[in-house]
Amino acid sequence: MDFKELDPILHSQLRLAVVSLLISVREAEFTFLKEKTNSTAGNLSVQINKLKDAGYIEVTKQFSKNYPQTICKITKKGIESFEDYVKALQSYMNPGGN
Amino acid sequence: MQPVYCFINRLFKPKFQSMQSENFSPKDSLLLIDSMINQAKNRFTENGFLYLLWGWLIFISAVSHFILLKTRLLKHPEMIWMSCWVAIIFQIIYLVRKNKKEKVKTYSDGIIDNIWMCFGICMMVLIIIVSRNNLWIYMYPFTLMIYGIPTFLSGVTMQFTPLKIGGISCWALAILSTITLPIYYLLLLAAAVLIAWIIPGYLLRKKFKNQH
Questions:
Q1: Contact between chains at B8 and A6 (C-beta distance less than 8 A)
Q2: Domain for residue A38, yes or no?
Q3: Which residue segment(s) compose the domain that A56 sits in?
Q4: Is ipTM beyond 0.90?
Q5: Which residue range(s) make up the domain with B114?
Q6: What is the 3-state secondary structure (H, E, C) of chain B?
Q7: The domain that contains A30 carries what CATH number?
């Protein structure tokens, strides 16, 4: 059986949830990701930084009405890695390639 | 399938010991991806405000223009359309504020914004052509035709049938204008914005409120 290696950056529930959300939208604010993933701000922040360090997402910090705003956007590398991850998952789900 | 899960767990356990959430199966991964994509995809960001603003403004202006033409109360009844400039400024301020508040920007939002920007440019070009060639009589039929394009395309992008019907109605009214006296073009315009913007605007608002 030929199993493709699963990307360790994406093979984490929270990071995968963030990337799955970002792949569906143009960009999203931190609070949107927090609300949809049901995670704590601290944990989400750590995972976002890991995705950013891997080059999978772009993070922009700005101010809106004196409040800090964190905007996240998936990168080309992030999209490619996500697609590879899904292909790898499929190889586990259909080991015979059917 | 069990040996496959064991294989994955064995593969990643050393790295992910500190975080339980990494011990999940490929099936769980696919379910999570599907759930997140659906959550983002089903998000409805259009609250119908601009459809209602422009719908009511054009409706009131067109009907007022028609009444003023019929009653001859004003020498230049067309001046009523100057209110559109106030609405344009208001719209710019509204959109800047809305963009800052928005927690998420979808791809369809971007497409719809560009469709309406093209509509705005087409309207400007139409005004220039019509005014330079003194073809004001064709202004309203062409406006009806152009109204149909962004309305229909927004309906297709949002998968919102009332807007698609609105767009088609604009084109039907543009054809109807060929057998109508020019003074009634204003009433056709009022009918168009009622069907294409005001009614869908209220339905969009209702849908938005239900979702948020």
A1: yes
A2: yes
A3: 13-93
A4: no
A5: 49-211
A6: CHHHHHHHHHHHHHHHCCCHHHCCCHHHHHHHHHHHHHHHHCCCCCCCHHHHHHHHHHHHHHHHHHHHHHHCCCCCHHHHHHHHHHHHHHHHHHHHHHHHHCCEEEHHHHHHHHHHHHHHHHHHHHHHHHHHCCCHHHHHHHHHHHHHHHHHHHHHHHCCHHHHHHHHHHHHHHHHHHHCCHHHHHHHHHHHHHHHHHHHHHHHHHHHHHHC
A7: 1.10.10.10
